[in-house]
Amino acid sequence: MSPQPSAMRVLSVIPPMTQLNTPYPSTAYLTGFLRSRGVDAVQEDLALALMLKLFSRAGLLSLREAIHALDVAKRTPLVQGFDEAFDVYLSTISATIAFLQGRDPTLAHRICGRQFLPEGPRFASLDVYIDEDGGDPLAWAFGALGLQDKARHLATLYLNDLADVLRDAVDPRFEFVRYAESLATSQPTFEPLAEALAAPLNLVDTTLRELTLASIAHHQPRLVLISIPFPGAVYAAFRIAQFIRAEHPGIKIALGGGFVNTELRELTEPRVFDYFDYVTLDAGERPLLALLEHLDGKRSKQRLVRTFVREDDLLPHGGADAAMQRLWGPTVVRYINFVEPDIAFAEVGTPTWDGLPLDRYLSLLDMLNPMNRLWSDGRWNKLTVAHGCYWKKCSFCDVSLDYISRYEGTSAATLVDRIEAIVAETGQTGFHFVDEAAPPKALKALAAELQARNSSISWWGNIRFEKSFSPELCQQLADSGCIAISGGLEVASDRLLNLMKKGVSVEQVARVTRGFTDAGILVHAYLMYGFPTQTVQDTVDALEYVRQLFEQGCIQSGFFHRFACTVHSPVGRDPAAYGVTLLPLPPVSFAKNDVGFNDPTGVDHDRLGVGLKKAIYNYMHGIGLEEDVRSWFPFKVPKTTVARHRIARALSASGQG
């Protein structure tokens, strides 16, 4: 028997900071699902609202007041420079925001003239592009026709300068994405966050408080859902809850999201519940239905699903438990999981962006990496092809957690129904499929359904570079609207790929990626260094493979990141199988995720990482592809053992050379 609709209004909130170019999709998913079940559900993006309020004329005036309240000795050169050029910043901020929102495209001419925007330290990054003939320093990146792109890049540097001023003068933790993340990332105790939340409110806090209370006044919810996707949204999420609790103690507040699902699985810290009434794990649909029934008096607390609560006086007094009572006090955190089947992926409903100001998001152009550009430039409708990962074997991945381990798909017809409903609602045809790895069979069926309905969309997403992606399938995906794909090449070493259980080889990756490139699809490779037992020789050889993949046109974009061991990954759960030992963790009552390890190779991976990142930055711009890979390292490394034309020969053997 299906549950009866809840009469209460539910407000889902995106906390600062997430993305500024498009809404983070958690609230769209939850709001769409709740409405499909008859719940009065609304949503609010406080991340965007905060940014737009701080970076407005009123916001800059408040920033100047905060600066003038500082002792002169505490004003950094950056802050002093802003104060001296304040009138120019004040006169340009509204127009620049409007330009980045797409409301005033002709301003690009003035921005590109380099006389309109004040140029702070962030613009010094352009010096590395100055050509020897004294021409346009950004011509290599944008060409003669890239006026809008070049202007967006310059306007983004301008906003980054202002963010730096805000950080120096008001809040040293402020970032557009990683806001105060050190307070939350793998923090074993709540103490650093508690201290930050007890501190006096600064300009960012007071602005967020004003926006939060205005949202509550507007929507009048009985339940507020705050979804934290990343550690960089934790501090603001707790502030939002703090503001609601202080002014509206009768409103219930629930916490969930990717950060919670990953790092708070062993939560025992009672103080979290000074801010939140409920903390839920994993896919939110079933826990939410149970919570709504509980709040409506139709379900007991003991029948909540995957939910942490705080209970008072749970421990018996006296006897053997007296010591525990004195240690923990009268409150304990309890995890309740009345097991019920999750909502099938086919039945979660269609995400809705109704209520979000889609015309106010900003198309930023920060990094000139083509895949990073897709992340930050333009508004994409985010959608999943399936729940979980169909492969779920990679040894560095959190394969034990629900968002990876529970794989569930739906029909191509249902997916395209959702796509068409979203296009009708938003008027926008760009889609980012946010799967961990979209299944090739599902993508093939999706492409066929899109073509059968003559649906004209543009889409991109993440895949595994497996042999199922034949040149024919790559072309079909391109014909259906695919413009870019990303995938994990990780350490480009067959030995390490096998240890990682990636299920691919370097030569296979070359053939698959070349098939995508030949179909006109941009290919981005996620690359890794510092994996257990990785030697300096492995690193040099991996870079040589990457060089050849760029040289042969297999990939156009890439990014190296340092391997981090997590407690939920196969490496973290069975380190001996990967030749490492884990460092002991302190007692954990709050966040638990990253764990240090000892690798017997003793390689200084951070030192190697500098050269790797420099190399790939140049490769993306077609520079240095003929150079010996050893030239990227400022110290001696061994010569590569990879044949110089191995990728070319592999492609030739498959008829792709």
From TrEMBL:
Protein name: Radical SAM protein
Top-level taxon of origin: Bacteria
UniProt keyword Iron-sulfur present: yes
SUPFAM superfamilies, per database record: Radical SAM enzymes
Pfam families, A to Z: Radical_SAM
Cofactor: [4Fe-4S] cluster
Organism: Roseateles oligotrophus
Keywords: Iron, Iron-sulfur, Metal-binding, S-adenosyl-L-methionine
Domain B12-binding: 138-302
Residues in Radical SAM core domain copies: 375-613
InterPro entries per UniProt: BchE-like (IPR051198), Cobalamin-bd (IPR006158), Elp3/MiaA/NifB-like_rSAM (IPR006638), rSAM (IPR007197), rSAM_horseshoe (IPR023404), rSAM_sf (IPR058240)
PROSITE patterns with a match to the protein in the record: B12_BINDING (PS51332), RADICAL_SAM (PS51918)
